[in-house]
C-alpha cells in the first residue's frame, strides 16, 4: 500500500532533531549549518549522531525562516554563460561540493544578462563569470545595492563597490603560444567568434606572439567557433584537414582544446607527435584528459574561498581584488 503524505504534514523542527540526537538545539544548529561559532565544542561522534537524526526524521531547514531571523539567505548564486564547458563546470562542481560544508546552498543561473539574473535572486554572495561589460561604472550602476555581495571574474574590471577576481588572460595566452613555439613553427589558433575587428584579446595575443617570433599567420590558421560545445569540433576539423596542417594548436579555452584533441585522434593523428594542443583554464576535465593548459595554482579553491568569505561575512572589507597569476600546467597533449 502506498503511504500518502498530506500537504499539511507537520514540518520536523530542529528541536526534534536535537532531542533525537540527545544534544542541545544550539549544537544541532552548529552541526547542520556548518557554522563555526567560537566556544562551540562537539566531537565527530556527536556530529554523526546529529546528521543521522536529521536524516531519520527527514529534517530540512526552513531557509525562509532563517533568512527572516538572521538577514541571511544561505545561498551562493552563480551566474554563468554556459555550464557544459570544462572551466565553468569545474567551478560549479567546486561550489556545489564546498558550499554545503558551510551550511550554504548553490544556485546556478545560465544567463548572459547578469543583472537580470541577480535581480531575480536573493543571495549572501554571487559569483559572475564571462561578463560582457568592461566598464566598472556600468557594473556599479547595473548592480545597484546588490554590488556589495557580488564577486566578478573579469580581466577588465576594477573593484567598484563589488569584488573582482582577475586572471590576466593576455599573459596566459602569451605563455600558451610561447610554449608551443618552443617546438613548433606551424601554430594555429582555435578562437571564439568575436564581434570586434581584431578578435578576442587571446586571439590578438596569438597574432602578436607569432609576429615577435618572426612568423606570419597563414590564411585560415585562425579557425573561429561559435560559443557552444559542438562548434569547436567543426573548427578543429577545418584546421586538421588542411594540406598545410598545423603541428600545434592554441585553443582559447579548455573545451576547444578538448575538441581539438578528440578530433585529431578521430582523424588518426597522434597527440602530441602529429599535433600538439594547449588550452586556457586548467579545468578538472583538462587535467583528467592530460591536456596542457594555462591556469593558476589552486585556482578553483582560491576562487571558492574568496566568494565564500563574502557569503559567510568573514570579511567586511569593500572592493576586494584577488589576482590569479597564470601558470602553465604541461601535460601529455604538448609533451610526449
UniProtKB/TrEMBL annotation:
PROSITE patterns (alphabetical): HTH_LACI_1 (PS00356), HTH_LACI_2 (PS50932)
Pfam families: LacI, Peripla_BP_3
Annotated ranges, domain HTH lacI-type: 12-70
Keyword set, alphabetical order: DNA-binding, Transcription, Transcription regulation
SUPFAM superfamilies: lambda repressor-like DNA-binding domains (SSF47413), Periplasmic binding protein-like I (SSF53822)
Keyword rRNA processing: no
GO terms for MF: DNA-binding transcription factor activity; transcription cis-regulatory region binding
Protein name stated in the entry: LacI family transcriptional regulator
Annotated source species: Microterricola gilva
Amino acid at each position: 500500500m502506498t503511504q500518502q503524505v498530506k500537504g499539511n504534514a507537520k514540518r520536523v523542527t530542529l528541536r526534534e532533531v536535537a532531542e533525537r540526537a540527545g544534544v542541545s538545539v544550539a549544537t544541532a544548529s552548529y552541526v547542520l549549518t556548518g557554522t563555526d561559532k567560537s566556544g562551540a565544542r562537539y566531537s565527530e561522534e556527536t556530529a554523526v549522531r546529529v546528521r543521522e537524526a536529521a536524516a531519520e526524521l527527514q529534517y530540512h531547514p526552513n531557509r525562509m525562516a532563517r533568512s527572516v531571523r538572521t538577514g541571511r539567505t544561505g545561498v551562493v548564486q552563480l551566474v554563468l554563460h554556459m555550464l557544459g564547458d570544462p572551466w565553468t563546470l569545474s567551478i560549479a562542481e567546486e561550489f556545489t561540493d564546498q558550499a554545503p560544508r558551510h551550511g550554504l546552498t548553490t544556485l546556478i543561473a545560465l544567463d548572459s544578462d547578469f543583472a537580470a539574473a541577480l535581480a531575480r535572486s536573493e543571495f549572501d554572495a554571487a559569483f559572475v563569470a564571462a561578463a560582457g561589460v568592461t566598464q566598472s561604472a556600468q557594473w556599479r550602476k547595473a548592480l545597484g545595492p546588490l554590488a556589495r555581495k557580488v564577486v566578478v571574474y573579469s580581466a577588465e574590471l576594477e573593484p567598484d563597490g563589488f569584488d573582482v577576481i582577475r586572471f590576466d588572460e593576455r599573459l596566459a595566452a602569451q605563455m600558451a603560444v610561447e610554449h608551443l613555439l618552443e617546438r613548433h613553427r606551424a601554430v594555429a589558433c582555435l578562437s571564439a567568434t568575436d564581434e570586434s575587428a581584431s578578435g578576442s584579446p587571446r586571439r590578438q595575443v596569438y597574432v602578436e606572439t607569432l609576429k615577435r617570433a618572426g612568423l606570419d599567420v597563414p590564411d585560415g590558421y585562425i579557425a573561429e567557433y561559435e560559443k557552444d560545445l559542438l562548434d569547436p569540433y567543426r573548427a578543429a576539423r577545418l584546421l586538421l584537414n588542411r594540406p598545410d596542417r598545423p603541428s600545434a594548436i592554441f585553443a582559447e579555452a579548455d573545451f576547444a582544446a578538448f575538441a581539438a584533441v578528440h578530433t585529431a585522434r578521430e582523424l588518426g593523428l597522434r597527440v602530441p607527435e602529429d599535433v600538439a594542443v594547449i588550452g586556457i583554464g586548467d579545468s578538472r576535465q583538462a587535467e583528467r584528459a592530460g591536456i596542457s593548459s594555462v591556469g593558476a595554482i589552486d585556482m578553483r579553491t582560491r576562487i571558492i574561498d574568496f566568494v565564500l568569505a563574502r557569503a559567510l561575512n568573514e570579511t567586511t572589507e569593500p572592493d576586494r581584488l584577488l589576482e590569479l597569476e597564470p601558470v602553465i600546467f604541461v601535460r601529455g597533449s604538448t609533451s610526449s
